[in-house]
Design brief:
Elements lengths: L6 E4 L5 H10 L3 E10 L2 E10 L2 E10 L3 E3 L9 H11 L2 E3 L39
Parallel strand pairs: 1-4, 5-6
Antiparallel strand pairs: 2-3, 3-4
Keywords: Ubiquinone
GO molecular function: NADH dehydrogenase (ubiquinone) activity
Organism: Methanoplanus limicola DSM 2279
């Protein structure tokens, strides 16, 4: 089985609207927007697909960064953007549908912002046989 290469490109927040518009104009569909908190920063990955090929754009932000909505290019992105706001307290400007923090009902506000943090851990090399 061959695993295809997937493009992952880090871009700035300022580049996001233009790069996403290019994807839309080129016929890519938005597959998902995923957010992860690592230490004190957030990684937001925008995944696109065309002709069974995935391409990803990633922005890395601090908690006080305002992220521009991509709903001008991908109307349905408002669901992901509201999710980022409700669960991580990411500020998203210009959403076509803004639930103002009420898309998800959670027992505590922004549960993935302060309470859960993923830390990068160095990978362990596999032991290829033999004793230690």
């Amino acid at each position: 089985m061959t695993i295809e290469d997937q493009l992952l490109r880090d871009i700035s927040v300022e580049e996001l609207p233009g790069e996403v518009k290019k994807k839309s104009d080129d016929g890519y569909r938005l597959v998902q927007i995923g957010c992860t908190k690592i230490d004190d920063i957030f990684e937001i990955n925008y995944s696109f697909e065309k002709d069974y090929r995935f391409e990803n754009l990633r922005i890395t932000i601090s908690g006080d960064t305002v992220v521009p909505s991509i709903s001008d290019s991908y109307w349905g992105s408002f669901i992901y953007e509201n999710e980022m706001h409700d669960l991580y307290d990411i500020k998203v400007k210009g959403m076509n549908v803004d639930f103002n923090g009420y898309l998800f009902k959670t027992s505590i506000p922004h549960p993935f912002n302060d309470n859960i943090t993923v830390k990068k851990v160095p990978s362990k090399k596999k032991n290829n046989g033999g004793g230690e």
